[in-house]
Structures are given as C-alpha cells and as structure tokens.
Amino acid sequence: MQDMRVADYPDQDLLALGLARQIASDLRAALHRRERAVLAVAPEAALAPIFDILGGHELDWSRVIVLPTNELWDPGGAVGAARSLIQNRLLTEMAAQARFEPLARSADDPREAARLAAATLDTLVPLDVIVLNVDGEGGIAGLYPKSDLLDEALRADAPSVLPVQANRSDPVLLTLTVPVLRKAFSLHLVAQGAQERRLIEHARTAEPRLFPVSAVLDVATVHWLA
After folding, report:
1. Structure confidence by residue, pLDDT tens digits, 147-197
2. How many domains would you assign to the chain?
3. In this prediction, what percent of the chain has a pLDDT beyond 90?
C-alpha cells in the first residue's frame, strides 16, 4: 500500500481556502528558487472555487506561467472551455498579471499538436505546482482508464504531452503525462466527494492502468473532506 500525504477539511469552503493558501505559498517558494514559477491546473469546474480565491492572493503574478493539465485539441485552434475557465476564474484580480500558456496548438493532426506543445513544455519542467481533480473513475488530467495511449503516458520516458481519447468517438485531449506530473515540486490532488475518497483508498493498492491516479499518490498531497 502506498504512503500518501493527506490534508483533511471539514467542508468545501475551508478546502478551497486552505488549498488556495497552500498553492500561493508554493508559488512564492518557487519564485525564490528561480525567475519564474509554473502552475498547471486541471480545467474543471469542481476546482473553480479554489481558483476564485487563489487569484486574489498577493504574489508576483507577473513572473507566473499558468497552463492547463489537459486541453481539447481543435484543428482550427478555437478557444475551448478549458482556456475560458482558467481565464475567467483564475486569471483575475492579482492573477490577471500571470501569463497563460495553452497546451492546444494548431496543427494538421493531434500527434503534431502534442509535439508542438511538448516542445514548449520541455522548457518549463519541472513544473512548480500542479493541481489535479480526481474523477469518479480514478482519472487525472486527461488520463482515464480507457484512454488509448494510457500505457505510453505512464512510461518513465513518455513525451511530456500526448493526444489521448477515452473512446474513438470522443474528442482528442492534449494532456500532460505521468512523468511530468510526478516531477513537479508540489502536486495537489483534490477529492471532494465520498466516492472519490473511497476510490483513492482503493487505488493505493491498484495498478495505474486501472486507476491512473495511483501513479502519483506517493508524490502527491491529497486534499479531501474529513
């Protein structure tokens, strides 16, 4: 069974307040280490209350780069929901000074788009802070149990970005891969429901191919409701 760090909160409001405070502290520490800090966040509505609070924290946001952990690939380069959520809920108030770095790139095919995104990301790793939401299937970022390239994304030598689909009929997501997630200075996992908490407990002894979240539990702090 994997060891993991856990932060308990009595309610969702205090989880949002506490995690936003921790992320801001992590970013300040990163800015002491180097000239810029990189924050990657899952573009999910469940994390929006955390984003709302984080954007108001005082730090040198002009030296912070913010990017999504996964983003829908559109051949025409249209702005998707992931980018809109981050820009409207996180990059406000103090955080409006931060630089947004999209994963999605205009390209003829998703593999080329992933290669272009990886070329940029490789200049930014190791990332300073990553914030992920755990879904009901044990998925993280754009990696789900049925993702077509999950085995490749789990490998230690995986490219930093891959184009994945849970099913052939699903849209393509460009996602950070497990090596990038594991190498972050600070990795935070959010599990806000009882189902997600039970899933994480089960994932501690499960294979990452079945529960991708298990690939990072030993290097993450899990934030959940007590």
Report:
1. 999 999 999 999 999 999 987 788 899 999 999 999 999 999 999 888 888
2. 1
3. 81
Cβ contacts of residue 137 below 8 Å, gap of 6+? 144, 145, 199, 211
Question: In the numeric block, which tokens belong to residue 109?
Answer: 């095919």
Print the domain residue range for 219.
5-225
Residues 205, 201, 131, 87: is their CA dihedral positive or negative? positive
Query: Which amino acid is located at 53 in the chain?
Result: I
Q: What are phi and psi of 151, to 5 degrees?
A: -60, -40
CATH number at residue 193: 3.40.50.1360
pTM score above 0.70: yes
